[in-house]
Amino acid sequence: MEMIVAQRQTQGLAMTAKMQAALRILQMTNLDLSAHLAEQALENPCLEVTMPDAAPPLPTGVAGGARAQDWDEIAALESGKPSLYAHVADQIALAFPDDGPRRVAMVFVEALEPTGWLGTPVEAVAASARVAVPVAEAVLTRLHQLEPAGLFARSLAECLKLQAEDKGLLTWELSVILDNLALIAEGRIDDLAEMCDGTPADVRAALAAIRGLDPKPGLAFAAAEAPILPPDLRVVRRADGWTVEVNRGSLPSLRIREGALTWADAEALAYMRRARSSARWLKRAIERRQATLLATAAVLVRHQAAFLDGGPRHLRPLTAEAVAEELELHPSTISRAVADRLIETPRGTLPLRVFFSRAVAPGNAEGPSQDAAMALVGDIVAGEDRSKPLSDAAIVKKATAAGVPLARRTVAKYRDLLGIPSSYDRRQAAALTA
Asked: Which Pfam families has this protein been placed in (predicted)?
């Protein structure tokens, strides 16, 4: 085989380290940017960063500010609920004195979902704990005795059975009904009554008892709440229309220490020059970040002014590609600019991505958007007669009359996304609650 050495010249785009850093800064939220600048200020002596105020001052009154002399700070502390996992771990320590079963029980805890249900099959838990399946099942049986009843259930029926048994309500008839919950969803009360050797009135009485049970007992415990992030932007109504402003209250202020460099040592002088150059570049990168974010938000608000005035039904089709073309930027830059960004509006604090929406008919930028059509379907169902729910075909007719022509399969897809059952299921649900 002959070896050949050849030269070839090609053109390509290589991202420098500064370009990559600028893109990371563009994608940072205000909180991330504050943390990044604080870290940079520790390393760069030419950089001076002032962090935004952590929180506004407390108002005067009982809960803060100038408190009354008889204010009891200890009593004012919220009695925090324990987490589900801490609650279960405390009970396991008492219920399982032996190390072996307690170790298997803690493996079950790792598979416990926030609802209180078991999210992993027993076979998988047994494999993780390296024990036989019968051993794991025996431990699970003991876990079912923990409080509140219903924890570690493998299904809705088992969860409700455990609670009914704990309250002394579990009869053979109720057990049969819980084993056939699908028939309840279908409204087949007569079939259930026949299976229970009872009457439809008996089944409805059992359903009333079931409604008093908690299908998700784990949710009664404390859960880690998502942090409340301050909005990066806000939109306000002025005489000439909607205006976008940067929320500077959540932004750190940046100042570069200028002045003559009088260092005698050449190495120290070179270091300070590099530090000052790096600080100036960082300041320019943040200014470009703010300009890109503000320009992107301004375009979104201008295109979706009707949404701010009238709500989701007035969202227009708008894509990141269209915004990028208008601003003469790359679509990936727009995607980074809006990622994890919040904007404060009269309709609440919303993710900036809410302003994007695809058209119902691809390529028809003048037609309705998918979000507007979905909101219309939700409004139509919300206004229907519950005793006579609208079929998908009837929803299509009403949507077409409102100027939004939709296919029946599109209505069905939007119903699923909105969590709206079919007309048959809605009719059965109305009959059960009548």
From this structure: Sigma54_AID, Sigma54_CBD, Sigma54_DBD
